[in-house]
Amino acid sequence: MKKIRNYLIAAVILTGLVFSVMALRSYYLFLKEPVAQLAGAIPVESAVVIKAGSLNRFAETVQSSALAGLLENSKIRYGFSTLALKSQSLTTLSSFFKEILEHDEVMMAIVPDKGNQPDFLYATFIGKTKPGRITREIEELYPGLKIEKIKNQHADIYHLSNQNVDVWYYISRGILAFTYNRDLLLRSLNTLYAPENLTTNKSFSRLMETSGKLVDGVMLIHNRVLASMLMQTEPGPLDFEGSPFTSWTTLDLKIKENKVLMDGFTATQTGDNLMEGQEAVSETILAQLPRETAFAVSLSLSNQLLYTEKISHSDTLQVAGYDSANRLISHEIFRRKEQINAWAGKNIAIAATDDYFNGNNLSRLLLIEVSN
Fold first, then answer.
1. What CA–CA distance (Å, rounded) separates 128 from 33?
2. How many C-beta neighbours within 10 Å does residue 333 have?
3. SS3 of 209, please?
4. How far apart are CA 155 and CA 36, in angstroms?
5. Is the predicted pLDDT of residue 4 greater than 80, yes or no?
6. Is 119 helix (H, G, I), strand (E, B) or coil?
């Protein structure tokens, strides 16, 4: 009997040692896992990325401005006010989530889905926080919420659901990411482990380095992807041979009660320095745009000819027109060197009304200043 008892004690001790070693190994691997840059979790084909010092501060600033209405009218599944309210609720209910929401850097991305419709991804840096800690906090806050853990090649993904909630998230490499779409979450996770992502994109990285630090937020726009998503066309209107607008633009955001001030840079992927040989000139053409204008881009350069020759090698300019005499849509062709360069001034603007974003190409407008 004594011998059997000794065997049982030895077996219990051995089992305890095995579990201890497994736990230590798991904790060692967790500590050894590299911490990634936050941008690594953002899919490369995102249309818009907003970076802020914390979700709570950014949400409070937006909610007190006119920008809140614009974000609420977007086509994203849940409006920005819903996200802001959830953030405020978690801050009140949990000191753990309060620390994350008030102090951790956040990136919010608008990403086109397979149908080229906008989807939303949220990612924040949480450092060495184990997934189990997040799960326990959620279980304590929302006892009736179903939490499903799903094995994945890179890291486990989690699904939160009940009658009012349908959220997917993962925690890996120091990043917590969540979205309302499983496919988008997997895209984010695969991007995080890919050898090339936005952290290795030279244009994106260069703009991130030049973005402002003492601002309300930074908006990074993937020009080609956003234009394609808005127009629902592929290729998009900015995706033409020699286009300098297919890469990223960064805009520092200073959000006021009745206006949003934006200032930034556009990175080009062309080899030429597009501004070489140019001098600053005054902008004079935007005041001539119709009141119905929804979008406009202007170029104010001392030498428009030098600039346009760098981005387009074609001498032919094709423009949709309207034959008022016969009441027919016409197709006009101009020779840039023969018919435009002689009188073109230093300001050019491309504008469009709301109908342009519904696929009506005839609502576009090109204005060219006449030289003195």
1. 9
2. 10
3. helix
4. 14
5. no
6. strand
